[in-house]
Amino acid sequence: MTTNHLLVKMVFDRWNTLLKNCDNILQSITDEQLQKEIAPNKNRGIYILGHLIAVHDAMLPLLNLGEMEHPELYEIFVKSPDKSAETIPSVQELRVLWKNQLETLTPKLESIATEEWFEKHTSVAAEDFEKEPHRNKLNIILTRTTHLSYHVGQLILLK
Amino acid sequence: MTTNHLLVKMVFDRWNTLLKNCDNILQSITDEQLQKEIAPNKNRGIYILGHLIAVHDAMLPLLNLGEMEHPELYEIFVKSPDKSAETIPSVQELRVLWKNQLETLTPKLESIATEEWFEKHTSVAAEDFEKEPHRNKLNIILTRTTHLSYHVGQLILLK
């Protein structure tokens, strides 16, 4: 196993473990619990669920894997704060989107070869990448993993 | 920059960013806020602060950087749940320990050479490491980074 292969495995082990943790929490709480605020006057569980789906959907164009599948979610759950949108998808709808994303995202990520993870992602210019080679595709997974962990630490409070 | 160097930098960028985020939150909240529960009937801020100090202290023996400096904190803040210990350090004492740890841990981690990060940590046997080379020292930083992010997502709720 090359060091590059090893590093990709280390990062994906964390990413997959946290996705699984998050999925377990979501399965263990009711729709009513997801409607609640994680703490008084803070974001609701439903907002965090929509936020995670939208942020993970936005990884697709960053990794050159195609367009976002649900750009409308990005508007509601990333660009706007909780309780500001007139209508948002229901918990049931978001649960279906989450489940579908879990099933479809992994094979897409697995289609990227080891060496390609060390190439630049789409939002960094080639000349900047020469000076900042850490702005590679693997770094997208790494930053989304810590982002996911941050919100898993919040969703667990609904239990 | 070799790929190994790059990967160590990527992981440490995340670790250092989250330590800084955590420190900023701690500086922006009062001692009284830290005494509060992050959500009703959940851990108090003071417990999470002690927990982070203890978990980061326990990285020293794992990385072969010496003994834990505060093993008593591990008993109180890792082995025991919140509100179970008879006495715990005050918020003021924990703030001093956190600050000292921030100042002393970074140079210790920086003393580890790039290639050494891919060697086994102390809690994995040599024969297991041959089969599981991802159980290296860098993986300790990676797992502690997602652990830190999880709790930063909770401490922010005290603001």
What is the overall number of helices of chain A? Answer: 8
**What is the share of helical residues of chain A?**
55-70%
The secondary-structure class of chain A comes to mainly alpha
Strand fraction of chain A: under 5%
Arithmetic mean pLDDT of chain A: 97
Q: What is the molecular shape of chain A?
A: globular
* Largest interface, C-beta closer than 8 angstroms, per-chain residues: A-B, 33 and 33 residues
Largest sheet of chain A: none
In the predicted model, the low-confidence regions of chain A spanning at least 5 consecutive residues are none
Nearest-angstrom radius of gyration of chain A? Answer: 17 Å
Q: SSE string of chain A, helix = H, strand = E? A: HHHHHHHH
**Quaternary status:** homodimer
End-to-end separation of chain A in angstroms reads 40 Å
Task: Work out the number of β strands of chain A.
Answer: 0
What is shown here, in short?
The structure is a homodimer of 159-residue chains. With 159 residues, chain A is mostly helical. Helices cover 64% and strands 0% of the residues of chain A.
What would you note in describing this structure?
The structure is a homodimer of 159-residue chains. The relative contact order of chain A is 0.18. Chain A is built from 8 helices and no strands. In chain A, 64% of the residues lie in helices and 0% in strands. With 159 residues, chain A is mainly α. The first copy, chain A, has helices spanning 3-28, 31-35, 45-57, 59-62, 71-79, 91-110, 126-131, 137-155. The mean pLDDT of chain A is 97. The A-B interface holds A 1, 3-4, 6-7, 9-11, 13-14, 18, 38-40, 42, 118, 133-134, 136, 138-139, 142-143, 145-147, 149-154, 157 and B 1, 3-4, 6-7, 9-11, 13-14, 18, 38-40, 42, 118, 133-134, 136, 138-139, 142-143, 145-147, 149-154, 157.
